[in-house]
């Protein structure tokens, strides 16, 4: 049968989920990018592409 976990375990699980969520969302977004699915270049070059796209997506350039 299922027992309620102690509060410190519940808090740990909440903190862990909060830390993992941004990474999981990022990986899900990366998987959707066609450029990476069709990439036939080195992993170093893919890393550079990912960095560039990340910069473009997260920059707040206002002109």
Low-confidence stretches: none
Strand fraction band?
under 5%
Largest sheet geometry: none
Number of domains: 1
Kindly describe this structure:
- The chain has three helices and no strands.
- The chain has 63 residues and is mostly helical.
- It has one domain.
- The model has no long low-confidence stretch (mean pLDDT 80).
Short description:
With 63 residues, the chain is mainly α.
List the helices and strands and how they pair.
Layout: H1 7-32, H2 34-37, H3 43-58
What labels would you give this structure?
63 residues; mainly alpha
């Amino acid at each position: 049968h299922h027992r309620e976990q102690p509060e410190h375990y519940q808090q740990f699980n909440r903190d862990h989920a909060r830390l993992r969520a941004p990474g999981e969302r990022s990986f899900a977004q990366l998987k959707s990018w066609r450029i990476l699915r069709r990439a036939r270049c080195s992993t170093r070059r893919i890393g550079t592409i990912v960095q560039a796209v990340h910069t473009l997506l997260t920059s707040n350039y206002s002109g």
